[in-house]
Amino acid sequence: MYDYKESGIVLRFPTEDFIPLDKTREYKAINTHHVKAVDIVYYQRESHTMVFIELKNFLSGMRPGDITSKDYTAELQKKSADSLLMMLSLFDGYDYMKNLQSTINPLQQGNPRFEFIHIMKVSNNQVPYVSTMNDKFRNTFAGIAKLFLIDHYMIITQSQANTVLHRYGIEYRD
Predict the structure, then answer these.
(1) Among 29, 78, 80, 161, which residue carries the largest CB count within 10 Å?
(2) Which DSSP category does 62 fall into?
(3) Count of domains for the chain
């Protein structure tokens, strides 16, 4: 098992087929140009699926209403779209992201499926906000999802994380 820690959250992956995308040299070189990235891209070989994962912790110093003080849904939509574009540039043979092929190379099996999971660590009284954020995200990301045949894209709470991540063999830990 391989652990990844971000925002006080630990994900345990069954294989090392993941990239902390927002920490790569390639991303850091372009993030000053209004490009955003999710925390992790995990490649599950069995299902030939690339899972884009973002982790947010709203428990560290935030009041319950603070989750609505910023448009986090727009931020997550941008991170999802930009991360997808970064991975697609890798597939189309553009040199910029080529270094990442040694870590994740799903092209050996043809075009992969894409899925997006944004996990929000929140208090019980913040859960309704996450549901609203998920509805808005599903609406704003729907066009991109149709273009790339993306069936699973969601914003969920930490209490839903293990149920959703289990299908990929990933464990969520606080």
Answers:
(1) 80
(2) -
(3) 1
d(CA 150, CA 147): 8
Measured over the CA atoms of residue 142, residue 144, residue 155 and residue 56, the dihedral's sign is negative
pLDDT of residue 89: 79
Beta carbons of 78 and 52 less than 8 angstroms apart: no
Q: Which residue blocks in the chain are alpha helix, DSSP H?
A: 25-30, 72-91, 127-140, 142-147, 158-165
Q: Measured between alpha carbons, how far is 8 from 101 in angstroms, rounded to an integer?
A: 28
CB 14 within 8 A of CB 45: no
Does the pTM surpass 0.70? The reply is: yes
Domain assignment of residue 119, given as a range: 2-173
Q: What is the three-class DSSP state of 77?
A: helix
Query: Using one digit for the tens of pLDDT, what is the confidence trace for 4-57?
Result: 998 889 999 999 889 898 888 888 888 888 999 999 999 898 888 999 999 998
Tell me which residue of 49, 36, 42 sits closest to 11, measured CA to CA: 42
Nearest partner of 115 among 149, 171, 153, judged by Cα: 153
